[in-house]
Design goal:
Distance between the termini: 27 Å
Number of domains: 1
Strand order of the largest sheet: 1-2
Number of strands: 2
Strand content: under 5%
CATH architecture: Orthogonal Bundle
Structural class: mainly alpha
CATH class: Mainly Alpha
Radius of gyration: 18 Å
Helix content: 55-70%
């Protein structure tokens, strides 16, 4: 699904601002996490939020069921959990470790790669890693780490893309480079352009500061 132009803000309540009832609510805790992640990894807070909005917009029932099933398995004792993971992987036709999980919709191997590069501290065991991906409070930081890793990877190849939210939005779901590797003229896809539109809109509406205009 390609995101259309961002909708008009609903009137804010004292506790939170609704950008869209189905997509995202930026309450004070979420805004604080966005700004902390942006500062830690030196990427725009509005771009982190744009990626999370896009991921949320694309969630379907299957994605939600995967998260619920993994959360359930993580509560089971060891021997029972082992059987659950085999059953779940068999039903899905692929191992649990290949699922995209949590608000960041990040795969475990992506998180491991970020750990190997030194951007985040990653647990050693699969179950601890899955818990990390499913921790809603860490989503902003995981997205920011991935965006920073992408910026740095392209910069090492002589190409600056921090000023290209559309390209960064594209690469978030494709990997550090996509199929074509680092090159001088990266082109965004429709998904990346949608993320960039969200980032631009968020930066002008006061959503990230809690000062969104009443409509």
């Amino acid at each position: 699904m390609t995101l259309s132009a961002p909708p008009v803000l609903r009137p804010p309540t004292p506790a939170r601002v609704s950008v869209h009832p189905r997509l995202v609510r930026l309450d004070p805790q979420t805004r604080a996490r966005l700004h902390a992640a942006a500062e830690a990894f030196e990427v725009p807070a509005e771009l982190i939020a744009g990626v999370l909005i896009d991921e949320h917009a694309r969630l379907d029932r299957w994605d939600a069921m995967q998260d619920v099933a993994v959360r359930f398995g993580l509560r089971l004792p060891g021997p029972v959990a082992a059987g659950w993971w085999r059953l779940l992987g068999g039903c899905c036709g692929r191992p649990v470790d290949s699922f995209s999980l949590g608000r960041a919709q990040m795969k475990p191997e992506t998180l491991r790669h970020l750990g190997r590069l030194g951007y985040v501290d990653v647990p050693a065991t699969p179950d601890a890693l899955w818990r990390m991906l499913l921790d809603d409070r860490l989503a902003e930081r995981l997205v920011a780490a991935c965006l920073r890793a992408t910026v740095d990877h392209w910069a090492a190849g002589g190409v600056a893309i921090l000023h290209r939210p559309d390209v960064l939005g594209t690469l978030y779901s494709l990997g550090l480079t996509g199929a074509n590797g680092v090159h001088a003229h990266p082109v965004a896809n429709a998904r990346g352009e949608g993320i960039a539109r969200w980032a631009s809109w968020l930066s002008t509406q006061g959503v990230l500061t809690g000062q969104a205009p009443q409509r």
